[in-house]
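Troubleshooting: if your tokenizer reports a length mismatch, compare against these two reference records.
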Amino acid sequence: MSTGSRRKNSRDVIASAARRLFTERGYAGTTVRDIAGEASVDPSLVIRHFVSKEQLFLDVLGLTADHALPTDGPLETLGPRLIRHMLDPEEDVRGAFLALVRASDAAGVGSRLRQAHDELFVAPLADRLEGEDAALRARLAAALVGGLLYSLWIVGDEDLRSTEPEVLVDRYGALLQELLTPTR
């Protein structure tokens, strides 16, 4: 195995371990040593690959441009598609959302979370919307989606959690769509 392959492999193993631990224990409850132990590597290798625990957290939980929301495709159907993406178990939005909420008061993470919110959710939506209130509607859309995630995974609303995902996509997606392409 080449040196480049070993480096990429160790980076991937560290990222996987970090994602799992941050999701299970939160930011404060996870140390670089914990991540290194889970990945079976030396803690210095974690820092070599990711610079800091904070940067590792941000990278593995999707707060980079590589993890922007899928805002492409027809604007007329974007609301339901975004809700479907948020509920897709393959995307692990739940784990990332919970870890981010738990870490939002950690030094540096809260401000980066706000920046990512603006860059990865609000700005791409605002760029797609028309009208002088496009920026406001993009922020309201972000708040609407955040409200669903809060109800599902922070409050643990059992009625919502037991609702078929496609029902949530249809109904909540329609609410979101009204913000994106208002009929009035």
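Reference record two:
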Amino acid sequence: MVNSEENPNSAVSGISTGVIGMQDPLYLAPGDISGLHLVSAPFNGKHYVKWSRAVKMALISKNKLGFITGCYPKPEETAATYQDWIRVDYNVLCWILHSLIPEISESLMYVTTSKQLWEEIKERYCQANAPFLYQLRKDVMQTIQSDNQSVADYFGKLKSVWEDLQSLDGIPDCECGAMSKCSCTLLKKMLERDNRHKLIDFLMGLDNKYETVRSQILACDPLPTINQAFFRSTD
């Protein structure tokens, strides 16, 4: 029998449920302590979209995103992995709580799973989506290349706004698995449409001295990707 304090991948009860591989969501690395901070600056109630994206990226790196999305749900109490799942989920819950300022985390202490915690935070602080979405759309329309600005700097500024839009109002993820069986390439078409929108945004904001390049790009069939268009504009 292995003591749970010595082996981070043993069950809460102290009884090991078997060896857990590093690729398993139930695996905890030696540094995955409950007091871990997922982000450098704790969430203070503002800029929810950027904070949530940073937390998701941190959880993806630890193979734990499925705990908050529901893709890795709680098993039945009779399952061999039940205690391990509870232990890891509590770790994820603690990580998120430590990524909040005390005033917010204290009001969420009695949430029982990381998924419930994540949904509670989203419900509280993602209510102001409409004004933020309006501002981001406005920012896209108003982002143009200034006289002394390089194409790279202009593209980087525009790309930052696109990423915020993607986090707030991007193409939703398929959680039922139906998209993987889709035979009409719907996802591909949606991504192509998204690329077209970004391409037009980029070309509209280019300085007039790039008019020839802009016309050449628009004459392409099919249209290039946004990254290809950026490369052609920097030649």
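Descriptive notes for reference record two:
- Residues 1-126 form one domain.
- Confidence is low (pLDDT under 50) at residues 1-8, 10-17.
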